[in-house]
Amino acid sequence: MNAIMTIHDWPIGPYPARVRIAIAEKSLQPRIRFETVHLRKGEHKRPEFLAKNYSGTLPVLELEDGTFIAECTAITEYLDALDGAPTLTGRTPRERGLIHMMNKRAEIELLDPISVYFHHATPGLGPDVELYQNAEWGLRQRDKALRGMRYFDGVLRQQPFVAGDFFSMADIAVIGGLIFAELLKVPVPEEYGALLAWYARVQERPSVRNRVTMSDPAAAMA
Ligand code: GTS
Question: Ligand 1 pocket: which residues have CB below 6 Å?
Fold first, then answer.
């Protein structure tokens, strides 16, 4: 019997989306249960949750033996390695190095800046959660994310996927960034045609298309 794992989750969140996509790519849905942590109520900053993830962020993977693994990259690496046949994090040392680099670059140049924009230059998660905001810093980070989009457009002019010839964890990180940007109405500029074409293509993958309905968000948010 395969163990059931828990994802501590926010169903519509862009970071949790990364792990939901990885779960579907690996066909692990039957082994996962989702437990919603209400970000807008600040549940992720309470001591009970901080004991699971010191950083106070979602998602967190809980293994059946009580181990907690936080950070999308770490969770994806764990899930990808489970069946001994990695598809998302690379098989050869070269693939693994390139995917890790591009995944990190997607976080540094696109996803994390757009998240900072959300928390600092928009109402974010609301006044009870956003205890310190710096709008100027947030707006700078939005500009950084737009520069990141230009960079990834250039990458995708050269190759079909973010880290090379196949869909990987690095694509999922850029998808997370574009999901976040879409939610905040920061569109990808029209001239970034390669990025837009890639995004249209990856959105056709069932893992990306069905990520929110993977759990039952209506019930989870009730
Ligand atoms: N580096 C972390 C990771 O990769 O897992 C970042 C995770 C993260 O920022 N998650 C968001 C969060 O917990 C979830 S969401 O914004 O995508 O819904 N944010 C809450 C907060 O207060 O920062």
Answer: 10, 13-16, 39, 44, 57-58, 71-72, 115, 125
